[in-house]
Amino acid sequence: MLDFADRWLLLFGVIVNLPVGYFAFRKKSLTFPGGFLAAAIIGFTLFIVHPIQWLILLIFFSSSSVLSKYNSGNTFKQEAMKFAEKGGTRDVIQIFANGGVAFIVAVSVLYGSGLLYQQLDAPLMVLIVSSFAAANADTWATEIGTTSRINPVWILDPRKRVPRGTSGGVSIKGTIGSLIGSLVIAVFYVVFIAINNQSLDARFFPLIIIITFLGVLGSFIDTLLGATVQAKFQCPSCVKTTEKRFHVHNEKVDTNHTGGLKFFSNDVVNFVSIASASLTVFLIL
User: Fold this and answer.
1) Is pLDDT of 217 > 80?
2) Arithmetic mean of pLDDT, 85-97
3) Which DSSP letter does residue 239 get?
4) Residues 267 and 231 sit within 8 Å (Cβ to Cβ)
5) How far is CA 201 from the centre of its chain?
6) In the 3-class helix/strand/coil scheme, how is 42-104 assigned residue by residue?
7) Position 229 confidence tier, pLDDT thresholds 50, 70, 90
8) Measured distance CA(170)–CA(145) in Å, rounded
9) Which of 38-52, 70-84, 101-115 has the lowest mean pLDDT?
10) How far is 231 from 1, CA to CA, in rounded Å?
11) How many CA atoms lie within 13 A of 218 on its CB side?
């Protein structure tokens, strides 16, 4: 049986998620109802694990949504994103591709320890944060990297340059974006812990380095998978490589599968890279 405090926590978790989800929907950051419901479920689950985890989700979602609008009029970015699999409005699959690892771990924490788990430096709690650091690092790398005036280099052959937006491409701006995106999540987590504890505890500072590292690692794995196993298609009209399964100029015309594993979409790459990097926390803590 839930006690009085637990019931209020559950109710408050529902209340705080509704306006955030509605705002995101109005700003066209989420599809409805799929993206809205998926975000609400993940948000509610993280909130009852610990409100700090919910705040980290909010930092990730808000910063990545703002960045999706960053330099939206930039010619280089417009051309690059034209061939990306999906745009800035997140659907249910994208939500779980980026937040699914955190959701699964959060459920396991609830099952094993109950509501409001207080060991904020425990491996499972750091794993949740690191998964968002990896997702944020990848998002920032893409959103900032595609604005670069210089085409990225191919991760498997740095002597070769590829078009902006190509999965497997690496640029200086994108790499810096990845580092900052991961660092933002790490710093906010430690700051939230300090506020929660009402004191600065030096033992939490190494988490900044650990979480930042795991986030950047996730972005690197994402790029590597994008270059090797991610499905690639070719537009039959303009003969350009794309992640889309339909013609980039006409959604009714199929593109031709030219490389990678056909089922290994960008969403699968995101989930696998986030899981691979964040699970590494068990080798560190």
Assistant:
1) yes
2) 77
3) -
4) no
5) 28
6) HHHHHHHHCHHHHHHHHHHHHHHHHHHCCCCCCHHHHHHHCCCCCCCCECHHHHHHHHHHHHH
7) very high
8) 8
9) 70-84
10) 48
11) 41
pLDDT at position 124 over 90: yes
Amino acid at position 146, single letter: T
The whole-angstrom separation of Cα 98 and Cα 135 is 6
Domain total in the chain: 1
Buried-exposed string 211-231: b where 16+ CB fall within 10 A, e elsewhere: bbbbbbbbbbbbbbbbbbbbb
Average pLDDT over residues 154-178: 91
Residue-number span of the structural domain to which 194 is assigned: 4-230+265-284
Rounded distance between C-alpha atoms, residue 170 and residue 177, angstroms: 11
Type of residue at 214: L
Instruction: Pull the structure tokens for residue 10.
Output: 């559950």
Residue 95 lies in a domain: yes
Count each helix (H run) and each strand (E run) in the chain, helices first.
10, 6
CB 152 within 8 A of CB 170: yes
Residue pair 28/87 in contact (Cβ under 8 Å)? The answer is no
Q: Between 38 and 108, where is the model more confident?
A: 108
Does residue 77 lie in a domain region?
yes
Distance separating alpha carbons of residues 90 and 43, to the nearest angstrom: 15
- The answer as to whether 245 is a domain residue is no
Percent composition of the chain: helix, strand, coil (DSSP 3-state, to 5): 65, 10, 30
